[in-house]
Write a structure and sequence with these properties.
The chain is mainly α and 164 residues long. The chain is 67% helix and 0% strand. The N and C termini lie far apart (41 Å).
Length: 164
C-alpha cells in the first residue's frame, strides 16, 4: 500500500469512527472511503478533526508527504523534538491548537505540490527568498496563520501565472 492509500484509509477511518459531534457529522458523505483530498475540501470535517485532535498515526503519514523536517514540525507546533518523540511513543493525539497547525501545513504542502508538480521543486521554492514575500523564505512565514495565508496566496498566484 502506498502513502496516498494509507492517508486515504487513515482519514476515512478517523472520520467514520471518531467523530461523534452530530452537528459536525451532518454534512458527512455516506460513501465508504473518504480520500485525503476530499477531506481538505470539507471545512466541517477539518474542524471536527481539529477538535478531536490529530492522532500521531495520521501526523506521521502527513509528515511523510510534506517537505518539512522534524525540526520544522517542532517549530510549527511550538514543541520540542523530545515532545514529538513522546507523542510517537505514546501514540497520543495532538491538542486542537497543534492539530490545526498540522492540517494547515498539510494544506500548504498539498497546494505547493500541485503548483510545482513535485515535492523537490516545492521544497526548493520554500527555501528560496521570495521578493513578493518581503524577501523572506516562504518556510519562514509558515510559523503563524497570517504567514501561511501569504504563502498560500503566493502559490495561488504562481499557479495562475501571476508573477509580481
Amino acid at each position: 500500500m502506498n502513502i496516498e492509500q494509507k492517508l486515504n484509509k487513515e482519514i476515512s477511518t478517523i472520520i467514520t469512527f471518531s467523530l461523534t459531534d452530530p452537528p459536525l457529522k451532518r454534512g458527512r458523505k455516506t460513501k465508504k472511503e473518504l480520500t485525503y483530498s476530499e477531506f481538505f475540501s470539507d471545512k466541517m470535517m477539518i474542524i471536527s478533526l481539529i477538535r478531536i485532535g490529530v492522532p500521531y498515526s495520521l501526523f506521521e503519514l502527513i509528515k511523510a508527504v510534506t517537505p518539512f523536517s522534524e525540526g520544522d514540525w517542532a517549530s510549527f507546533l511550538s514543541i520540542s523534538n523530545k515532545s514529538l518523540v513522546r507523542y510517537k511513543q505514546e501514540s497520543r493525539s495532538f491538542k486542537p491548537i497543534q492539530s490545526e497547525k498540522i492540517l494547515e501545513m498539510a494544506e500548504v504542502a498539498q497546494a505547493g505540490t500541485e503548483t510545482f508538480g513535485d515535492m523537490e521543486r516545492f521544497k526548493l521554492w520554500l527555501d528560496t527568498p521570495n521578493f513578493s514575500l518581503g524577501n523572506l523564505k516562504p518556510i519562514e512565514l509558515l510559523r503563524d496563520s497570517y504567514g501561511k495565508e501569504m504563502v498560500i496566496a503566493e502559490l495561488t498566484r504562481i499557479d495562475h501565472g501571476i508573477l509580481v
